[in-house]
Amino acid sequence: MEFFCHHRDRSGSLPLRTELREEHWSYMDRYAAQMIARGPTFAPDGETPTGSVHIVDLPDPAAARAFAFDEPNYQAGAYRDVLLRRWHNTLRRTMWDFPGGRTGGDRYLVLGLGAGQTADLDPRADRDELIAYGPLLSDDGARWLGTAALVRAEDPDEARAVLTPDRYAEIEVHAWAFGGRPAGSAIGVTTG
Could you tell me which of 169, 39, 178, 29 has the C-alpha nearest to residue 101? Predict the structure, then answer.
């Protein structure tokens, strides 16, 4: 089962996140084989971190809750809240399989919170610009709750256009970047 997890930073928590960076990476190393996508979100300035996205394949909702709430930054109080939903990998690939690679162009998290009838089960956008895409679902997978996408786009408005605007109660767009350990850091893990 695939899950979308968006930890949102508590105001002023950057020093704590910086202090816990190695603990966070070590924790995520345990999930490297199950990781579909990961990376930080940023404020509109593109530099101030605002959260962390992880899309991961786990056995069940209980394992997903453990993943989200045992994370070191969460345990230390760096996050103000967590959005955790079952997700479906519509593109059937990981971010490391994205044809556009890790660099070049701006990248965004587009998060549409559902407003009733199912929408956007299949991407409207060019799949070559989508890094990850899929519906947000209830724990049992039976109800559509929205859509989450990671996309390369010229600007936030172009990113937002991957979803049908009138089908969502709200659409959020956050600057996003590929995450994971920097090349050459501890344990030789460079992504995920």
Answer: 178
Measured distance CA(165)–CA(161) in Å, rounded: 8
Cβ burial, residue 11 (10 Å; 0-12/13-18/19+): exposed
For the record, the structure tokens of 52 come out as 């962390």
Question: CB-based contacts of 176: which residues, under 8 Å, 6+ apart?
Answer: 39, 40, 41, 42, 53, 107, 108, 109, 150
Tens of pLDDT, residue by residue over 78-127, are 999 999 999 999 999 999 999 888 878 899 999 999 877 898 988 876 77
